[in-house]
Design brief:
Blueprint (H helix, E strand, L loop, with lengths): L11 H8 L2 H6 L8 H12 L2 H14 L3 H25 L6 H8 L2 H36 L12 H16 L9 H12 L2 E2 L2 E2 L4 H16 L1 H26 L15 H6 L2 H7 L16 H30 L11 H8 L3 H35 L18 H17 L2 H26 L3 H5 L13 H16 L1 H11 L5 H24 L3 H15 L3 H25 L1 H4 L2
Helix pairs in contact: 3-11, 3-14, 3-16, 4-13, 4-14, 5-14, 5-18, 5-23, 6-7, 6-18, 7-10, 7-16, 7-17, 7-18, 7-24, 8-9, 10-16, 10-17, 11-14, 11-16, 13-18, 15-16, 16-17, 18-23, 18-24, 20-21, 20-22, 21-22, 22-23
Membrane topology: Multi-pass membrane protein
Keywords: Membrane, Transmembrane, Transmembrane helix, Transport
Subcellular location: Membrane
Length: about 575
Amino acid sequence: MSNSSFFRKKSIDQILKDIHTNEISDSHGLVKNLNVRDLTFLGIAAIIGASIFSAIGQASANGGPAVSLLFVFTAVSCMFTAFCYARFAATVPISGSAYTYAYTSFGEIIAWILGWNLLLEYAISNVAVAISWSKYFVDLLEGLGVHVPDYITMDYLSAARYHKMASEAVAEGKTFESLSVNLRDGFTAWETAPQLFGIHFIANLPALIITVLITYLVYIGIKESKNTNNILVVLKLLVIALVVGVGAFYVKVDNWSPFAPNGISGVLKSVAAVCFAYIGFDSVSTTAEECKNPQRDIPRAMMYALIICTTLYVLVTLVLTGIVPSHHLTGVEDPLAFMFHMVGLNGVAGIVAASAVIALTSALLVYQLGQPRIWMTMARDGLLPQAFARVHKKYKTPSFATIMTGVLVGIPALFANLEEVINLSSIGTLFAFLLVCGGVLVLDLDPENQAKSKFKIPYINARFITGGLLIIVMVFLKIFSAGSYDWFFANISGGEDFGNAFLMLCFLIIWALISFWSYTRSLSLIPVLGLIVNLYLMTQMGTTNWQRFIIWCAVGFAIYFGYSYRKSKLAVNS
């Protein structure tokens, strides 16, 4: 393939050779300090974060106890994807994660846009975690009798929106005290905020402060980050065990009926929040160059982390919805603490609030650890300025990339809205998962590539299964959910929900094409299923998120053609 092509690829042999060259070992050397336990704890730290202490509340309000099944379904999708990540990590043990995997399978332009979306995944995810951390930290201070002004704990958009909603509610005759906590806090923040030239100063300062502190910790070394994370994860797991163990005694089985109070549409409304819960498992692969035995330990750590975290998510969801009727969880930002307040266990609620600060700190650390290492790898390939590849001589960390990550997380965390951030992050994550699964299928078309990996995905021939599943799903929907067909045909012809119907049509066409390729190429079933499930979850993100995603990709392509295409080492060395 020509080095002038947009789809020029890096060979696996060249990547493996580069890892051992003097250029990397001397100028870009990272310290090999992580074992399988450390990697598993990194995965748990990333997965058990903002979702279990915050987003799980609104997800349960939308879908009821049935959200527990959505966690299982999404985990199965992640398990398929994890096999593909493990396959690549065992073949190409380098810090680029999905970006490097795409470079070897699809080519440079796809690798670039995936790396660009990984920036979205990690940076925006960390913004969400920082915002959640701020909420729990402020609640903890309030519990200790320390009041923090509302205008330095909330984003500008939320304060403006809540102020308007509260004002309208009071004008309609409602009392201020009868309004929700969010509306009251937003109204107070807007009214009490200092003003400059008529502009209200409202910003989430605790979110910025914790981002700065975590960025400093990541900057000074992987060993320090690892040890801190391991301690935080142990504490987090102990508290979740407390939540499940104590909460189980207060579960009322009647609260699980109906299991899906808002139907399947209510459950699917929580797709973004549930997908957001799992975005961290792929961060394990970004530490490949700091692992003692990446080809053995990264696949194991991914599987261990997914199994442990899925079990915990399901148990916590069932306990939460068993104690608190799901409709009472609408708008609740600290559902686990709220759950124990409902049954009069205020002491346990205080412990949960304190532990949430610990849990979110560890999640923030892992995301902040992963992003600079992807940028470092992209800079090595010439797609980003060489400053991003700089490794600190003393601390052996990607110094400039770490600082830039702190800036790109800390500043938006001051002003961003949590719900919007979660939705935007989830679609970028699923895009990365999608390409990793597809990349394995492309890579394994060459038998020589299969021989270079120490991790083998169990091979099941998808020749008849992929198409058979499509037929079964279509027949099932026709028999048991005829309304789905009515909705589709009513909207695909120009109805109000045309955008979502069009996304579903595209999904079905791509599934049919994958079925054809599975039949003609005898593809491996596990990556095929990962491809289909991740694509389906992307269709459930809604047209607004797809529009933002397309705009983000368009900006990425502009940067690629304006800078990266010419500066790429594959182009320079040709």
